[in-house]
Amino acid sequence: MYAQLVKTDAARLRTLDEMDPQERAFQERIDAGEKIEPKEWMPEGYRKTLVRQISQHAHSEIVGQLPEGNWITRAPTLERKAILLAKVQDEAGHGLYLYCAAETLGISRDEMYAQLHSGKAKYSSIFNYPTLSWADIGAIGWLVDGAAIMNQVPLQRCSYGPYARAMVRICKEESFHQRQGFHIMSVLAKGSDAQKAMAQDALDRWWWPSLMMFGPSDDASVHSAQSMAWNIKQDSNDALRQKFVDQTVPQARFLGLTVPDPDLAWNEEKGGFDFGQPDWDEFYAVIAGNGPCNRERLQARKDAWDEGAWFREGLSAHARKKADRRMAQAA
Amino acid sequence: MSSEWPLWEVFIRGQHGLNHRHVGSLHAPDAEMAIHHARDVYTRRNEGVSIWVVRSADIVASAPSKKGPLFDPANSKVYRHPTFFDIPDEVGHM
Ligand SMILES: [Fe+2]
Ligand SMILES: [Fe+2]
């Protein structure tokens, strides 16, 4: 998912009886499935946690354009190029929907950009891996967008209105992303030996980072429990990971590809697959800024912001000039 | 000084002769660019045939705390709904 390790500031979960009347009324509205809207009273922790979660999510959509953007000029056909361009453009849109949702909580767009550019705000670990071949574009759509869908679908019902509505728009577009990726993979998997090997290599490299997207086990995490009580998180990280594996392994088999996990085995009793754990040391290293592409990704965002400054200023100057002219005419 | 572009609220009329509906917001330096951005951000899949944009700062909203005084008075006026009146079956459709 695109928001990993979101802290809540909660030391422990409090009961309704321990809350003051205002907070208690707020919690009861959430328990009744009501939506919280901007400008309504909310606990400071709820507001802060949502700002962290939504901005992390937005940053992930924006940074997530970079690994795929790498292949727009190298797509194998004009049609694939147009499809990839549309997909990457959608991701820009997802970032914008989410930034707007976060802004309703009182943080400005410039502040969020500054937090991303300074490294203070995080984005999903998955986008710090390189896209080495065309098959990686297939693997990203199939696995990465597939994993994102797993937690974005329940978020459509989350308690904060603007976030829930942004998720509805996003979910409508994600299915296209996953299918175009799967389609790339199936063409390669049915192709020459070299193409098949390319598809397998992409699966080998993207499988574990995709499982890491759900974050480490959070069954014992007070942050996770608090986020669930606020209904801004619906499922545990392990539950979503299990769901993802159960859905994806049969698809890999359909493609004739091998999931790179020696521990993978069907467990009749639980009605799901048993599977191995990703390398969590690697995960923490990537989150801390030391993945294969962290520096490159952040630099690309900073360069885009700095090198676009003259253009943003030009548009502002033009808008001011037109407004002044209108004023002069009206006077 | 912040050079952030102002925020605009975006309303789209769908294909089917419906009202313009609020779909979200975006930043743009002026109205013309706001329409361009709205086209790219909110209508990539033929979602609309017409766009309105309005500066968020120009919207006047009712206060959440006024919810009771504003809307509660309608609760007791159930006779405003047709289902309040029983019409005998033999009268037929009404
Ligand atoms: Fe997305
Ligand atoms: Fe996507």
From TrEMBL, chain A:
GO cellular component entries: cytosol
Pfam families reported for this sequence: PaaA_PaaC
SUPFAM superfamilies for the chain: Ferritin-like
Gene Ontology terms: biological process: phenylacetate catabolic process
Domain of life where this protein originates: Bacteria
Coiled-coil features, chain-numbered ranges: none
InterPro entries: Aromatic_CoA_ox/epox (IPR052703), Ferritin-like (IPR012347), Ferritin-like_SF (IPR009078), PaaA (IPR011881), PaaA_PaaC (IPR007814)
GO MF annotations in UniProt: phenylacetyl-CoA 1,2-epoxidase activity
Protein name (record): Ring-1,2-phenylacetyl-CoA epoxidase subunit PaaA
Source species of the chain: Enterovirga rhinocerotis
Automatic annotation (TrEMBL), chain B:
Gene3D superfamilies associated with the record: Phenylacetic acid degradation B
Matches recorded under Pfam families: PaaB
InterPro entries given in the database record: PaaB (IPR009359), PaaB_sf (IPR038693)
Name this polypeptide is given: Ring-1,2-phenylacetyl-CoA epoxidase subunit PaaB
Originating organism: Enterovirga rhinocerotis
